[in-house]
Write a structure and sequence with these properties.
Oligomer: single chain
Number of strands: 2
Number of domains: 1
Distance between the termini: 31 Å
Helix content: 55-70%
Strand content: 5-15%
Largest sheet: 2 strands, antiparallel
Shape: elongated
Number of helices: 4
Length: 149
């Protein structure tokens, strides 16, 4: 096992995918309630992407992003291992997994549009998902994520 095969682009894609997985599991996607009634404070409730509403979409997105991380790790750490591919390349497989993650998260958004209820985790996931899809797209096209200067 050697990390010599892991490029800067691989670290970026892996890091984005790992941060997105942490976001889906731990960060608040929805902040519901809170405020006060008379002299009584009502605590709010924070829900992650895996919680209701439409928690199943969050779970599918998490499965897709974990599969992307596993695919990247297996290819780089154990290159002799044969894995199934989409479109004839591992990069296109990772692009498809990133696209599936984005699709599930977009559906979760569409099914639950309440801009005032979205928490920090939702907005962070938007940035991370866009970064992940664009990064895997560039790699699948044979380009580097960060061009050499």
């Amino acid at each position: 096992m050697s990390l010599d095969n892991v490029s800067r682009d691989d670290w970026i894609v892996g890091g984005l995918a790992l941060l997105l997985a942490i976001d889906l599991i731990a960060l608040p996607w929805f902040s519901i309630g809170g405020g006060s009634v008379g002299a009584f404070a009502i605590p709010g409730v924070d829900l992650t992407a895996l919680d209701a509403p439409s928690g199943w979409l969050g779970v599918l997105a998490l499965i897709a992003v974990i599969a992307l991380i596993a695919d990247l790790a297996i290819e780089r750490v154990s290159p002799q291992t044969t894995m199934p591919m989409l479109g004839g390349s591992r990069a296109k497989t990772r692009l498809a997994l990133a696209g599936a993650t984005a699709l599930f998260l977009a559906l979760k958004f569409v099914f639950n549009i309440h801009f005032s209820d979205f928490g920090f985790g939702f907005w962070a996931a938007v940035v991370l998902t866009v970064g992940l899809v664009l990064s895997t797209l560039r790699i699948s096209q044979g380009q580097s994520i960060v061009p050499a200067s």
